[in-house]
Amino acid sequence: MSEKLWSGRFELSTDKFVDEFNASIHFDKRLYRYDIRGSLAHVEMLAKQGIIKPLEAEKIKEGLLKILDEIEKGDFEFKTEDEDIHMAIEKRLKEIVGEIGGKLHTARSRNDQVAVDVRMYLRDIIADVKKYIKTFLEVLVKKAEGNIDVIMPGFTHLQTAQPILFSHYLLAYFQMFKRDLERFDDSLKRLNKNPLGSCALAGTTFPIDRFFTSKLLGFDTPTENSLDSVSDRDFVLEFLSNASICQMHLSRLCEELIIYATSEFDFIEFSDDYCTGSSIMPQKKNPDVAELIRGKTGAIYGSMVSLLTTMKGLPLAYNKDMQEDKIPLFNTADNLLGSLKIISPMIEKIKINRRKMFEAAAKGYSTATELADYLVRKGLPFRDAHFVVGKSVKYAIEKNKRLDELSIEELKQFSELIDGDVYEYISVENAAKNKNSYGGTGLKSVLEQIKSAKQYLQSI
Q1: How many CB atoms within 10 Å of residue 267?
Q2: The pLDDT of residue 1 is above 60
Q3: Which of 92, 281, 342, 371 has the most CB atoms in a 10 Å sphere around its CB?
């Protein structure tokens, strides 16, 4: 019979396929650093509290550090029968230091052990996510500054709406990713609490010091309820939710850039090193990186729904179902970090076709709203002005002219309020640059947004 750490209760060894089906070690082994770090803190606390002898603690610590070295060097053998990373490390510890290694598990359970490991893992992942988002925010500001006066069409329903500055467009995404960063940062307040010492579900009769282990492991405070500590994964779900929103923003941006890179739009061009070619069509330059970022969004959404479904009917406290939190968590972390890492250089290297953008902004009667606003300034109620401009647009379509190509006589047939100064308002350039309401697309407003963005980046 294979000697498992919990084998005392059983007469029969587990079925071979049960071992395989039950094991999580092949994916949770990536938690080894956190498991060993948690164990080092736990054994130090046990010695401080007089639960084990100082010499025993030192021997266990030496064994744990040897295991860490073995894993880092690739000399550690991960075995299916060891079930999970916690048992694998403890089993190897007993091989190194003897039976004294069994004292490490005093006053803790795998239930609180895995909860603390995942919290520490997530804390590091969130730090990386925040770092990559900050880098991307810096790229967006730099790109906006470098293209401050480029005019493009703004869209609603993917139809030309009004002229805007391309810098204003980029800064819209700055705001989205700023909120993403703040969401991840805010989640740390709930994440950074220490479940170690909750044991299986009820705590322990040993005189442990959970505040001591919390300090050693960098947690703000211990969790307050042992039952809750081992039975929920809302901190993982919050990460998956935040990741889903962030990846959605990445996907929207990539979708637009893919459209803007088509020959029909020709607003931008991706750098060659972020594209691939076709195996059959020599002329093709495919935006595969942007498409993959967009494609990974579904996997991240699926991970969130997967874990929500896993957790939805679980009675307190721990259930083996909760082992299924790791794969969606790890997959999401990998996909999000990969997407964030690659988006910054991809955007940085994009070439902007300002001529094509301007030409497109001049189409579609994009300054019709400006003409309506002009008439309102002359005293016409907006709804009446809206009707007048609608008639003038219809006329311009029939004549195959832009609004600013209509003569003053042609325009006056729709309203006597229209005068020669109208062209100042309905020129594409003025329409894009002169909207200086707070947060608008005007040049002054965009410069204020850039200043504010830089101040924000300096503060984080």
Answers
A1: 23
A2: no
A3: 371
Q: Do 75 and 196 form a contact (C-beta atoms < 8 A)?
A: no
- Tokens 């005068």: give the residue: 419
Cα separation, 460 vs 458, whole angstroms: 6
Query: Does the annotation mark 278 as catalytic?
Result: yes
Q: Model confidence over 6-50: pLDDT tens digits?
A: 565 666 566 666 667 778 999 999 999 999 999 999 999 999 999
List, for residues 369-387, the tens digit of each pLDDT value: 999 999 999 999 999 999 9
Dump pLDDT digits (tens) for 405-435.
Answer: 999 999 999 999 999 999 999 999 998 888 8
> Measured between alpha carbons, how far is 330 from 264 in angstroms, rounded to an integer?
39
Among candidates 127, 123, 323, 129, which has minimal Cα distance to 233? 323
Catalytic residue among 2, 7, 26, 278: 278
Kindly report whether the global pTM for this prediction surpasses the value 0.90: yes
Q: How far is CA 343 from CA 186, 293, 302, 452, in A?
A: 23, 8, 22, 23
Residue 317 preceded by cis peptide, ω within 30: yes
Q: Is 168 a catalytic residue?
A: no
